[in-house]
Amino acid sequence: MRPSCISIVCLVLFAFCSVDGSDLSQSPDKCCFSFSNTRIPVKQVESYHTTHLLCSGNGVIFITKAQREICTNPTEKWVQRLMKLVDNQNMKQMTEAGSGDSA
């Protein structure tokens, strides 16, 4: 084989590896494969986020103040209520922080 052919083959292989690697970078970080049924007190929750659309099922991941991640079912009423409570808690903290800066 000529050196130019070897270079072309190497470039093609590199291109395939690059495309395959970019697909992996689009994969979700965390998905929920099972849900916790244990209700979490709002005082223990720092934040939450929903799972990525590429996950096989929808989920809500609550992050506790102890940095534990807990997967929950977003169709459960208690999960929806807890999400609202966490949102309200965060809004209250943002409002208090904003009013404290101007004093």
TrEMBL record:
Q: Where are the transmembrane segments?
A: none
Identify the domain of life. Answer: Eukaryota
GO molecular function (one):
chemokine activity
- What is its subcellular localisation? Secreted
What is one term from the GO cellular component aspect held by the record?
extracellular space
Q: Which UniProt keywords apply?
A: Chemotaxis, Cytokine, Disulfide bond, Secreted, Signal
Q: Which CDD domains does UniProt cross-reference here?
A: Chemokine_CC
Any Pfam family the entry gives: IL8
All residue ranges annotated as the Chemokine interleukin-8-like domain in the record:
28-86
Main location (coarse class): secreted
| Leader sequence residues | 1-21
A GO BP term, please?
Answer: immune response
Q: Does the UniProt entry include the keyword Disulfide bond?
A: yes
Subunit annotation:
Self-associates. Also heterodimer of MIP-1-alpha(4-69) and MIP-1-beta(3-69). Interacts with CCR1.
Q: What does this protein do?
A: Monokine with inflammatory and chemokinetic properties. Binds to CCR1, CCR4 and CCR5. One of the major HIV-suppressive factors produced by CD8+ T-cells. Recombinant MIP-1-alpha induces a dose-dependent inhibition of different strains of HIV-1, HIV-2, and simian immunodeficiency virus (SIV).
Per the record, the similarity remark reads: Belongs to the intercrine beta (chemokine CC) family.
Question: What is the protein name given in its UniProt record?
Answer: C-C motif chemokine
Q: Which organism is it from?
A: Danio rerio (Zebrafish)
Its taxonomic placement starts with: Eukaryota, Metazoa, Chordata, Craniata, Vertebrata
